[in-house]
Specification:
This protein is α+β, with helices and mostly antiparallel strands and about 280 residues long. It has helices at about 1-10, 80-90, 105-115, 120-130, 145-165, 180-190, 195-210, 215-220, 225-235, 235-245, 250-270, and strands spanning about 40, 50, 60, 65, 75, 95-100. Helix content is about 50%, strand content about 5%. The two termini are about 20 Å apart.
Length: about 280
């Protein structure tokens, strides 16, 4: 679990400073209104800590004030591991708060406020809709080099997930894409029912980033690394860049941003399923 946190830290480039994650106890509250779009705000706190609230949930404290969601709810997470990860995001902010870079915080806000007012079944159905337009299922029929690249890079992942879940997905160069059997959808639906609401929130976020259920499940199941999943999701774009070149710095920026969002989403899925408590000694310097 902590290894995953460290991996996310290295991918986001944030300094992991757990020394400020202090003992519980602050009680005063406040409502923090902010946008998770490209907004910034002057930093207004010094210390970040976590504390355990009623029902075993964990809260985030900024100095002596409790964090709240944009919808006005008390910001609580289901376990200590996720609380530490979120606290790390806030602790990593410097003079200016860059809300658009705080992906774990955004995902927690989404799970808590549920702005689209969906239940778990609706979220599963939305995720499965991506399967019908999955990135790795849509193939080109020219040029030959790209056809071969897609076959060599995407087919192994497609075969893996078909074997892993005993399903048929297939691929097609038709604009309509492959016809996904209902039995395949039912298998994935039953599998996704084992995810809780928070995990589904993270999984849907990952699927949206990669435009692929296949790549997302491959990463969540630890068959693919974040870097591999991102590169496979951008296969055609990477091919065109190698052939025609790219705008200076823009390509790398887009790649790093996608990696950061995907890594945060994957970590959110794993941490929101984590039930164990981090030992206090692990928080020491």
């Amino acid at each position: 679990m902590l290894k995953s946190l460290v991996r996310l830290q290295s991918q986001l480039g944030n300094a992991l400073s757990l020394s400020k994650v202090c003992p519980r106890g602050q009680q005063s509250r406040f409502t923090l209104k902010y946008s998770t779009a490209a907004a910034e705000r002057k930093k207004f706190y010094q210390d970040v800590s976590i504390s355990q609230g009623d029902g075993g949930v964990y809260e985030i404290n900024l100095d002596r004030r409790k964090l709240k969601t944009p919808g006005g709810k008390l910001f609580t997470v289901p376990n200590e591991a996720l609380a530490i990860a979120v606290a790390t995001e806030w602790d990593a902010q410097r003079d200016t708060l860059k809300f658009y870079s705080m992906h774990l915080t955004t995902l927690c806000n989404t799970a808590l406020d549920n702005p689209t007012e969906r239940n778990e079944d609706q979220m599963i159905n939305a995720a499965l809709k991506f399967l019908e337009t999955d990135t790795v299922c849509y193939r080109v029929d020219e040029p030959y080099a790209l056809v071969e690249l897609q076959k060599n890079e995407w087919d192994p992942v497609l075969h893996w997930i078909e074997n892993r879940y005993n399903v048929t997905i297939g691929s097609s160069s038709s604009i309509l894409g492959p016809e996904i059997p209902e039995a395949t959808k039912d298998t994935f639906r039953q599998h996704l029912k084992s995810f809780n609401f928070w995990s589904l929130t993270g999984l849907e976020y990952v699927i949206t980033q990669l435009k692929s259920v296949v790549l997302s499940m491959g990463m969540i199941d630890r068959h693919l690394s974040v870097e591999q999943a991102v590169l496979l999701s951008r296969l055609e774009e990477e091919y065109q860049i190698r052939r025609w070149g790219n705008v200076e710095w823009a390509h790398d920026y887009d790649m790093y941003e996608l990696r950061a969002r995907t890594a945060a989403g994957a970590l959110f899925v794993h941490l929101s399923s984590e039930s164990s408590t981090v030992k206090r000694k692990l928080l020491q310097d």
